[in-house]
Specification:
The chain is mainly alpha-helical and 402 residues long. The chain has helices spanning 4-7, 9-15, 25-47, 49-56, 60-84, 90-109, 114-142, 148-177, 179-200, 212-219, 222-242, 245-251, 257-284, 286-307, 311-339, 344-373, 375-396. It folds into two domains: 20-208, MFS general substrate transporter like domains (Growth Hormone, Chain: A, Up-down Bundle), CATH 1.20.1250; 211-401, MFS general substrate transporter like domains (Growth Hormone, Chain: A, Up-down Bundle), CATH 1.20.1250. Helix content is 83%, strand content 0%. Helix 3 runs antiparallel to helix 9, helix 7 crosses helix 16 (344-373) and helix 8 packs antiparallel against helix 13. The chain starts with a helix and ends in a 6-residue tail after the last helix. It is found in: Cell membrane. The chain crosses the membrane at residues 24-46, 66-85, 92-112, 118-140, 152-173, 179-201, 222-242, 254-274, 286-307, 313-337, 349-370, 376-395. One of its GO terms (cellular component) is plasma membrane.
Length: 402
């Protein structure tokens, strides 16, 4: 079985100039802080939506577009930000993303109308999309190639913590001191992150020259195109199912809101540990990490379809689902870095854009299946798509040889 990690070692390191001999773990931790702050800020409106809408004199649905605006701008910024900043030291660009977090949080905290709120979310979308696209490329320059999976696992710990903590902590702070204070806290977190990044990240002069033509050239590489198809399959399946997991839990095992909240918390905790375990698996075999992760999601989805009326089965399956998915973003980012270390920023933009397209497509397909077949429809599609992703990786492993 051809292992991506093994087949990429020596030749690809030679292509990636400026590889470090000693890891800069402080810089890696500063990236984890950055992604924690950005993801937390992304989901803050959901935790304070009602009071924020009432204060600004808009409907809940209109206020919810604050999240949509960030996602749309992030999807556009991801593949283009590397091109727009190609002449700048990547350290300065990283600081710019953190400054975007601070500025957007302050704008939101002092917003007096919808226009100011949306402007704040647009600024955050630029920072978020840009950070996601360059994160793996910067990590590649902070640690030796063999330690990239471990570095990515540390960085994605920030994502896991933000996913688990952002909504409940934001709601709690908003209830105590008001919704504006939650954004001020996000701005303060951004300021701390910026200080840590300025102290820990070394100079990183630009190496490659990203362009639109390069994006299309990268798509012709077998490892890149296979990775993108894999992501489209499992991400669309995952989000088709998980977007509608609450209606499933309400109607099939007929759980109350307290039980559903605990199960969703267990999903987040499972994702946290899946991220940590996934980092160690990826160091040995990326194909195993992606194949096993997607196959495990398919198994949990099938368990929900077949035995979901049982409370314990539903709780256990959703928790295991979170654990399985927790390893996949790390695995995919590492896959792309090793597939094209000479153009890691451009491949990062491609994979982020692919994620956004797959998320949107999965949510739409999930809605169609729910409307057509009830709550089991979206979960069934999740099982089919993730199983197809696992089989596709296994079938394509010999074609990945880069």
């Amino acid at each position: 079985m051809t292992d991506i990690a093994t087949s990429m070692d020596a030749p690809l390191v030679a292509d990636a100039t400026d590889e470090r001999s000693e890891p800069a773990w402080a810089g890696v931790i500063s990236l984890a802080l950055g992604v924690f702050g950005l993801v937390t800020a992304e989901f803050l409106p959901a935790s304070v939506l009602t009071p924020m809408a009432a204060d600004l004199g808009i409907s809940d649905g209109t206020a919810g577009q604050a999240v949509t605006a960030t996602a749309v701008v992030g999807a556009i910024a991801a593949p283009t930000i590397a091109i727009a900043t190609r002449g700048f030291d990547r350290r300065l660009v990283l600081w710019g993303f953190t400054l975007a977090l601070i500025l957007s949080s302050l704008l939101a905290a002092f917003a007096t109308n919808l226009t100011m709120l949306l402007a704040a979310r647009v600024v955050l979308g630029i920072g978020l999309g840009g950070f996601w696209s360059m994160m793996a490329a910067i990590a590649l320059r902070l640690v030796p190639m063999r330690l990239v999976p471990r570095a990515m696992s540390i960085i994605f710990t920030g994502v896991s913590l933000a996913t688990v903590c952002a909504a409940p902590v934001g709601a709690y702070i908003g209830d105590l001191w008001g919704w504006r204070v939650t954004f001020l806290v996000a701005a303060a977190l951004g300021a701390v992150t910026l200080i840590v990044q300025m102290a820990s990240v070394p100079r990183l002069p630009p190496q490659s020259v990203p362009s639109l033509k390069l994006l299309f050239d990268l798509l012709r590489r077998p490892s890149i195109s296979i990775g993108i198809v894999t992501v489209l399959l499992f991400v669309s399946g995952h989000f088709a199912g998980f977007t509608y997991v609450r209606p499933f839990l309400e109607k099939v095992p007929a759980l109350g809101i307290e039980a559903i909240s605990l199960i969703l918390l267990a999903y987040g905790v499972g994702g946290f540990f899946g991220n940590l375990v996934g980092g160690f698996i990826i160091e040995r075999s990326i194909t195993a990490a992606v194949g096993l992760g997607t196959f495990l999601i398919a198994v949990t989805a099938l368990a929900l379809v077949a035995f979901g009326s049982n409370d314990l089965v539903s709780a256990g399956a959703v928790t295991l689902w979170g654990f399985a998915f927790g390893a996949l973003p790390v695995a995919v980012q590492t896959w792309m870095v090793r597939a094209a270390p000479d153009h890691a920023e451009s491949t990062g933009g491609l994979i982020v854009a692919t994620f956004q397209v797959a998320i949107a497509g999965g949510a739409v397909l999930g809605g169609l299946f729910v409307d057509g077949f009830g709550p089991l429809g979206a979960i069934s599609y999740c099982a089919a798509a993730t199983l197809a992703s696992a089989l596709f990786v296994l079938a394509s492993r010999r074609s990945i040889g880069v």
